[in-house]
Write a structure and sequence with these properties.
- The protein is mostly helical and 507 residues long.
- The chain has a domain of 210 residues.
- It has 18 helices and no strands.
- Helix 11 crosses helix 17.
Amino acid sequence: MLSRILGFVRETVIAYKFGATAHTDAFLVASVIPMALAGMVAGAVAVAFIPVFTEYRLQKGEKEAWTIASAVINLTSILLAAAAVLFILAAPLLVPLLGPGLAPATKSLAVSLSMLLAPLLIFTGLVALVAALLNAYRHFTYPAFAGLFYNFGMISGALLLGGLMGIRGLVLGALAGAAAHLLALVIPLAAQKSHYRPTLKDLGHPGVKKIGLLVLPFVVASAAGQINLLVDRVLASGLAEGSISALNFASRVMHLPLGIFAGSAATAAYPFLAEQAASRHTADLRRTFSEGLRLLWFIVIPLSVGLIVLSEPITRLLFERGAFDARATQMTAVALLYYSLGIFAHAATALLLRVYFSLQDTATPVKLGLWAVGLNIVLNLILVRYLAHGGLALATSIAATANCLLLAYYLRRKLGHLDGSRILRSGGKFVAASLAMGLLVAAAHSYTAPMFDLAALTHRLLHVGGLIALGGIVYLGAAALLKTEELTRTLAWAMARLLPGGVRGWM
């Protein structure tokens, strides 16, 4: 949570220093390929790595598992370094293609920034792999807190170097933060140094080959997803200046609750799902998924409704200062509204994918993901004509919902059932309670807005904070009236820790 919140502070600092301007657009275009390649290579290895590594640890022992891990670490490092060098050479040709609608000066700036960002490929890629290793050992604290270093680096770059070097200061801060992030993860992993071997001779190991077979379809899916992001950026580059930045800032707001709750839950559940799948405990696998999804929706559905209803005041509170003006607020709020429609689907997909990966099935999510990417691109081309950059955000939400439904349908066929009736029953209660909350908060916002001086930060904070508090009270009250199982369990969990022995009164 701290890491995600600080990541969001990072975005507010970037908004304050650079706003939704051509320089910010250039930075975002420049970072697309380095981040995409890092996510594609290392992200794919990390996802395929945990179930295979866990399987070998359980069945063959620590030494055999680390034979696989050493080979994967060494090969991934070489591939990432080679990709960084190739990207530096190809950047002058590739980067201008990502923003054809940008002004020539902005394109030139994006090229130079992208070449500076090339080492980010290596740092970010290895971070994903090392974090996967720690997660496989059920170590979640170090990976969670290590992300603070990356955010500190970017914040420092923007605040300390931004005034001297402009947007390039942000790039240097990103590189320093990424290097510190990797170092902070490697230190706790050093306890396993006796098992690591700096060699490539084990690339023919059956476990390494198995990871390779699982990785290939995931790389295809990642590439398709990045193509979708590229299409978003290309289309947005032909719209009003700042459209790319508005989409980015809105996406960051949307991903704050997703990162804190959905990302954390999926990361923590994945090693357990992998063990349950390896041990063929299908009933436990279903229960872990069902309980995890219902708890996720209990949290994120009201959050998404709140972001829809309060998209403009929340954007104004978080970003409108410095170079981020009222026009940028309006553009970002529109994108946030449409992005928020798909939060429930993104949360469910994060957990659904972990179930597929724990079953060592990457092919099915890839096939469905390719279909969703195609749908997203078609919707982009249609909706951008009517809703400008808001259409790109809406297309993302529709495609995410379609992908979620298809993943659930095919997983149900694979596992027999997913405890669907309980999930739908609970989901219906969450939606009903959230709609009641949304209506009351919207009415309160309309009534109270004239009472506050929204140009003053303290007034914005009091206004939005009061509305959020009202929403929380209404939602919890409605959830209690509807007798939602998740609220009862959460209260029991809290009471058991705050007042030992007091849980019986809540059961």
